[in-house]
Amino acid sequence: MLLHPDPDAPQLQWLDPTHYRYELIRPLLLDPERTATQRAQETGTHPETVGRRKRRFAQQGMLGLGPDTLDVLPARRQLRVPETVVHELQRRKGLYAGFGARELARIIFHTTMHRMTGQTAQRLWDRLPPAAPPPRPLLDYHSHPERAQARREVITLSAQGWSKRSISQWLQVSRPTINLWMTRFERDNAASLADQSSAPHTPARKVWLPVMLEIYHLQKRHPDAGGFRIWSLRGKSDLSVRTVERIMALNRRVYTDIPGTEALHAPPAVPQPHPFKATAAHAYWFIDGRLMDFAIEGHRWWSLIILDGYSRTMLAGAVAPSEASWVALTVLYTACQRYGVPVHGISDSGGAFISDAFEGVCTRLGIDHQTIVSTEGQSYMNLMETHFNIQRRL
Fold first, then answer.
1. CATH class for the domain made up of 284-393
2. Confidence of residue 9 (pLDDT cuts 50, 70, 90)
3. 8 A C-beta contact, residue 211 and residue 239
4. How distant, in Å, are the alpha carbons of 167, 176, 190, 353 from that of 155?
5. What average pLDDT does range 228-254 have in this prediction?
6. Which one of 166, 223, 229, 282 counts the least CB within 10 Å of its CB?
7. pLDDT confidence of residue 332
8. Domain residues of the chain, as ranges?
């Protein structure tokens, strides 16, 4: 190798590339005022090559004079661990690859009694290749023939240093289940591994005779009230609405003086078809009024509603200070304007529905108006009574 392109110029020949690179930049090191461009012109080298050699020498010293393709790294401290630790890490890596650094250190200490930091265990874990896993016919919790064996394996892995996350992922068991098993094992030892019923041994009873008598008296004072209404009248939240309803059903069978329980103690009646069963939309309209439970400015108002007997849809309604004929005509006019004229109209024998004005409008519209007598047990024929009973019970 020559430092000058002219072979006739006096110069030394270098066989070592490192010596050649050093002689290339040595004048620049001795004389800082000289530039890389001047040295490149003297040696016939590209200026960027000279500048790069000088920068690498300033950063790495003699190591910077090596080839560009060679990465020079400082020597690291060799880890000195027993062979048993290396074999155990390789075996664990073949089983499961989701261990954490501190978890590996705990597992190595419990299996080989060799203490190491989590950083050391992680470095060894990253360097070692995984070994072939040993044959294991049972890989997850659901593959065990008996659940007690699977729970025992969970406790064993936890004692060996496995974290709950690793146990959960490897055995395919949820974290709450593992927490429950470990809590039971700490309390009952090996007896907790067997199957146990989740039902309480001594369930707390809230329904006693005083509570049943309290609900019984509420049923007598409010015979039309349902379960939610009785529950709200108690003013207590110790019982659920469903429990109150069960107590009410039991009281109806035991006590015959509760209003409305006569049908429970009487022989069952033969079911009869409804006399006004609709087979098409707007074949039967049912109209009725109900005196509302609350007062507006000291006066209790009436609610009048028209119901379609086929779809059970409330077609129109109004709230008025009295059940007068003009209110019934207003509700009928609104329903007819929206849905047309029905074939039949069913109502009770109230004064608003048997008035000459209401009967005259039904006659002119061609509505077959039929009335029922509520005092003779015909209230069930008017389907609006069902909706009003639901409102009353709530």
1. alpha beta
2. very low
3. yes
4. 10, 14, 10, 80
5. 90
6. 223
7. 93
8. 17-65, 83-193, 209-265, 284-393
